[in-house]
Amino acid sequence: MTIVELNEAAAAELKRLERLVRIEDGHIIFSKQQDYCVSLDRVGDEAAILRWAHHLAGKPWMTLPVLRHFIQLCCKHHHIDCHGRL
Predict the structure, then answer these.
(1) pLDDT digits (tens, 9 = 90+) for 12-71
(2) Using CA atoms, how far apart are residues 27 and 8, in angstroms rounded to an integer?
(3) What values do phi and psi take at 54, rounded to 5?
(4) Domain map of the chain by residue range?
(5) pLDDT (tens digit per residue) in 2-23
């Protein structure tokens, strides 16, 4: 696979994730058979995001890429650096 193909695949995956998990009207919405919504007020700090990630990881429809995108959306919305302290 070339670097161009990798870039195209990454862009396609991001578009897919943006369809599955999005912020709308103060909520993070997971699109599946029936939307699953989490209020952004409930994921306002690192501890809350971790609790929700743990909760969501137990859902049969949750995948690692979707969970990662959820965490990134929460961190971006609340201006939390999710990469700096690993």
Answers:
(1) 999 999 999 999 999 999 997 688 999 999 999 999 999 999 999 999 989 999 999 999
(2) 29
(3) -65, -45
(4) 17-77
(5) 999 999 999 999 999 999 999 9
Q: Is 13 left (phi over 0), alpha (psi -120 to 50) or beta?
A: alpha
Q: What is the DSSP string of 30-80?
A: E-SSS-EEEEGGGG-SHHHHHHHHHHHHTSTT--HHHHHHHHHHHHHHTT-
Q: Tell me which residue has tokens 């699109």.
A: 31
- pTM for the whole structure: 0.85
Which of 38, 32, 74 shows the shortest CA–CA distance to 56?
A: 38
In degrees, rounded to 5, the angle at the alpha carbon of residue 36 between the alpha carbons of residues 10 and 29 is 50
Per-residue pLDDT band for 84 (boundaries 50, 70, 90) equals: low
